[in-house]
Structure formats: C-alpha cells, structure tokens
Amino acid sequence: MLKAGVLGAGHLGKIHLRLLKQSEKFDLIGFYDADEANAKKIEAEFDYKYFDTIEGLINAVDVVSIVTPTLSHYECARLAISKGKHIFIEKPITNTVEEAETIRALVAQNNVKGQVGHVERFNPAFKAVRDQIHKPMFIESHRLAEFNPRGTDVPVVLDLMIHDIDIILSVVNSKVKNISASGVSVISETPDIANARIEFVNGCVANLTASRISLKNMRKTRFFQKDAYISVDFLEKKCEVVKMKDAPLSPGDFDMILQNAEGVKKQIYFDNPEVSNNNAILDELESFADAINNNTKPIVTLHDGTEALRVATMIIDQF
C-alpha cells in the first residue's frame, strides 16, 4: 500500500481523506491544513492524524494529494517533488501555465509521477461512451451551477469550464487554431458567466458555456460526428448514443428511416451503453496508485492539466 497524505482539509480535502482512508491501495498517514483550529477539529472528529507542518507530512508519505487553494498548488507540488514524492494535484494544476510547465519539468527530473484531478474523465457516463467518440466535428457543452461562494475567487472558466475544456481536449486530436470568448461579472469580481468558441486545426468547433449563477444545475456535453450523435449528462450520469447507417432494403415496421433530397435512405438507431455506478474521485485516486505501482502513464497527465489550463487562460485573455 502507498503511504498517502493530504494537503488541504477543506470541502474537497475532506472527501480525499475519507476516500484514501477506505481505499485498499493507500495507507492514509495524515493531513496538513493551514487553519490549525479547523485541522484539530477534523482530527478529533474523524481520527485523521494532523501534521503541524507541510514538511512533516510530506516526509512521512509516498504520495501527496494537493487539495489546497490553486494559488498554493505550485509551492506545495514543488516541495513534494523535491522530496521524491508522487503528486496528485487538483484542477486547475497551478495558477499559471509557467508554473505548470515547471512542475512537469521537476517531475521528470525527480523520476516521480503526477496526476491532475480532472474528475469528469472518470464520470461513469463519459467512460461508458468514450470509446464511441471518434473525430467529433462539433461539440456543445453547458455547465451551469447555482450560486455558491466557494470558488468565486477565480473566474468561472477556472472554476467550472475547465472540466469541459479537459474533456474536449481529450477527444479532439488536434491543436487549437482560434479562440473567441466573452464573460460577464454579475456577483463576483471575476466573470460568473462565460461562453467560448474553440476552433481546432482539423475543423472541429467546440462551443462551451459556463455559469455559476444559474437557477438550475446542468452539466451536459453533446458530441456530433459523422453518422453519430452522443450526449453525456455528467450530472445525472446518463448518456445517449444515436447512430445512422444505410437503410435496409426492406425496413421493419418500427425502423426509423430518413430520406434526403437525393433519395438516400438512412436508418436511425440507438446504441446506448450501460452506465456503471462508481465513485469518480475514488477511481481517479486509485488509478493513480495503479500508475505508480505498475510504472504506467497516469490517465490524466500533468501535460493534460497544463494544456487545459493553457486553453482556459487563452479564453480568459479574451474577456
């Protein structure tokens, strides 16, 4: 079992503590949090060992889960890597692309592994259809959330949209050609609503909308590709796959047939895979353990996290 420690015991940090504790692939050693009063309260309530220094925790573990505010990701990661520790780092990877590039270089130099917490890659609805997404040419994504003060210290692009940026970059095998975007600040000092259009060199276009002041929650992405439409509902953990093929010469009574102006007939059929229930955060943590133990590439690499941050930064620069 890998000895694990958590830096940051806020809302998400406490989830990491609970899941690392129950995982059979990790031995949870303890945690550090800058708020000593909060840390001692958590220690007393859940019996997790509290370390009063970052260095003390890092020295006691093999793997460090960094769940601190984004501004401190770089320093926490740099310190852990310098001690030869593997790092799991929550999204966004760092505050700037330059910091992310430095972290990637340090990981390579110190022969350790790193993974970024883009948890939607492990969403069961996305996992169910991932292998059916081939060369999408138009992608539309909506990520809407009711207002929550947590996270409003950064633009909605880094708070919410970056999830969809990572998903899109993971399925579009092409470089970004052009980005246009707009954002509006309603409650926060930074934009609360944003829309971005990403054009790729291969012709794919992605349209992303994110809001943290919506009246309802929505996390849905639709992929349009040759002969197929794929919808993923990340919130409800549902997916829908609609495909087209050449119509049979003798269609059945219940076959759905479309005919275009040239007389070509296509049959529409549904191919919806089964969605398995899972805990996405536990899956991503344990997948990182597998990457360390088997010396394989993590599912969400530091490069992936860097590129998602790079595109997010380009979007913010358009505001």
TrEMBL record:
Coiled coil: none annotated. Residues 153-216 form the GFO/IDH/MocA-like oxidoreductase domain. One of its GO terms (molecular function) is nucleotide binding. It comes from the Bacteria. SUPFAM superfamilies: Glyceraldehyde-3-phosphate dehydrogenase-like, C-terminal domain, NAD(P)-binding Rossmann-fold domains. It holds the Pfam family GFO_IDH_MocA. InterPro entries: Gfo/Idh/MocA-like_OxRdtase_N, Gfo/Idh/MocA_Oxidoreductases, GFO_IDH_MocA-like_dom, NAD(P)-bd_dom_sf. Gene3D superfamilies: Dihydrodipicolinate Reductase, domain 2 (3.30.360.10), NAD(P)-binding Rossmann-like Domain (3.40.50.720). PANTHER family: BILIVERDIN REDUCTASE A. This is Gfo/Idh/MocA family oxidoreductase. It comes from Gelidibacter gilvus.
